[in-house]
Amino acid sequence: MNWKRAFWMLAAVNAAVIVLAALKPSPPVKRPAHPDVEGASFTVYSKKAHLNAVINDYLVKKTKGHSLQYRVWLADRVYVSSEIPILGRPVELVVSFVPKVVKGGNVELTEPTISFGDWKLPVTYVLRYLQKHAPLPDEVAIDPEHTRVYVALTDIRFGNSYQVAAKKIDLAADEIVFTLTIPTKQHQ
After folding, report:
1. Which terms are listed as keywords in the entry (predicted)?
2. For the segment 104-131, what is each residue's pLDDT rounded down to a tens digit?
């Protein structure tokens, strides 16, 4: 076989390989699936003073028009204060709790202490009274038998359906950490 013929055979084979490679369909690009996200989440660090303002603003709206008004504030514990009329005179009722973050980002208030003027009242009696007469948001449940209050933070919707979940509450260090979830719409 002469070299010219071998050269043209080799050139023809190379050309055939190049044409076949160019015409062969490439594998499809794998596209990752869209994540199923209900919202964008952000970690929010707050202080007691800021949270006090938000809590009491929320309570003013929720208890508007009710005869028994109360306020909540965070200090070394969580305090709830109201004035209850006794024999025509207002007597201050203050209940304080230790907050604890529970599974799912909700808060449980435990270890209550009671101050009702100069009177000593059983904790369960006062919690029953509050359970019956206080205009509580639907997300707050008082459990007098176990002397605790459960706050379902994850059920509360703010503004445009924003949701919060507690991550850490350390009142002594003035460190409060929440996850704020803002609902989003997925465009596919």
Report:
1. Signal
2. 899 999 999 988 888 878 889 888 888 8
Does residue 44 sit in helix, strand or coil?
strand
Neighbour tally for 99: CB within 10 Å: 20
- Dmax (CA) of the chain: 125
- Which of 86, 82, 84, 110 is CA-nearest to residue 98? 110
Strand (E) or helix (H) holding 7: helix 3-23
The Cβ of residue 50 has, within 10 Å, a number of other Cβ atoms equal to 13
Do strands 157-158 and 106-116 pair parallel, antiparallel, or not at all (unpaired)?
unpaired
Structure tokens at 9: 């055979």
Distances (CA, A) of 133 to 5, 32, 78, 144: 105, 54, 20, 13
143 with 150: CB under 8 angstroms?
Answer: yes
Site of tokens 């003027």? 117
Question: For tokens 């603003």, what's the residue?
Answer: 57
Residues 6 or more apart whose Cβ sits within 8 Å of residue 85? 91
Q: Which residues pair with 120 in a beta bridge?
A: none
Each residue's pLDDT tens digit, 132-166: 888 788 888 999 999 999 998 888 877 778 888 99
- Domain ranges (residues) in the chain: 48-154
Q: Where are the alpha helices (DSSP H) in 90-171?
A: 123-133
